[in-house]
Design brief:
This protein is α+β, with helices and mostly antiparallel strands. The protein contains nine helices and twelve strands. The two termini are 21 Å apart.
């Protein structure tokens, strides 16, 4: 497979639109909103491709099931990936063909295969849902430059975005601080493309089961509509807590797609 970058990535957008699940992040790479690249079988008229995010350990396959020779080439290309973020040593390969998954398992026997759920938002359900409650002593605010002094927030943001400045220019997030102004939880956009903000929620382990995840996500969702955009949610089929909070916030499943993940 041959590598393409820059404006050449845009020629893959029609292929992506044939299978819109896991759409926002992959589209952002093709549009140049995130640093990434692709490998294709034919640079002029590709019909098989892998999209790579340079930072986040994310891959997305486009095209039909490859033959054995193509599968071997795709597998070698996928296995050669390394994030340019030193703290990222994992990969999530969306829509990975079965034949390629088998090759990956030969290299990484502990690689996991599962389905990822794609959910879009229904505002009517959201509007009828319970209002969030900010825990006593905590404060809910939008993510700003000063909050990037918190190492976790900075590294989490730079996992997906080239810099915190670019994040603040193109996206936003909500943060819960505890009574000592320490990080308790956040909800941030990991992508902003196609009219969608894709959600990522993190809550400090000691602060869970306090409604913090729901509160930061609820405020985030409302801000999406203030910006005339839609929130999008993806989660692992085995992540029942994520599915429950998504449903409570008004998200509705639109499909599932295969994914294989491994650490290197």
């Amino acid at each position: 497979m041959l590598k393409i970058i820059g404006n050449d990535l845009k020629k893959l957008i029609p292929m992506l639109r044939e299978d819109p699940l896991d759409y926002p992040l992959a589209l952002g790479i093709l549009e140049g909103k995130f640093t990434g690249y692709a490998f294709v079988n034919n640079p002029k008229t590709p019909d098989k491709a892998i999209i790579f995010h340079s930072h986040a350990g994310f891959m997305h396959y486009l095209g039909s099931e490859p033959n054995s020779a193509e599968a071997e080439d795709i597998g070698k290309t996928a296995l050669s990936y390394r994030s340019d973020r030193t703290y990222c040593n994992w990969v999530e390969f969306a829509h990975c063909p079965d034949s390629v998954t088998n090759l990956i398992r030969e290299k990484y026997p502990k690689a996991e295969s599962y389905l990822r759920i794609s959910l879009n938002h229904d505002y009517e359900i959201f509007a009828k849902g319970p209002k969030p409650i900010v825990p006593t002593g905590c404060s809910l605010r939008f993510l700003d430059k000063a909050l990037f002094n918190i190492e976790f927030l900075r590294s989490e943001t730079e996992m997906f975005w080239d810099s915190t400045n670019i994040f603040l220019e193109k996206a936003f997030g909500t943060v819960m601080l505890d009574s000592n102004d320490k990080f308790a939880g956040d909800c941030g956009a990991v992508s902003a493309s196609g009219g969608f903000y894709e959600i990522n929620i993190e809550v400090k382990e000691s602060k869970r089961r306090m409604g913090i995840g729901y509160a930061v996500a609820h405020r985030f969702i409302q801000e999406c509509y203030n910006r005339e955009a839609h929130p999008h949610w993806d989660c692992n089929e085995h992540n029942i807590p994520s599915q429950k909070i998504a449903a409570k916030l008004g998200f509705v499943e639109v499909g599932r797609y295969p994914l294989v993940s491994w650490t290197y």
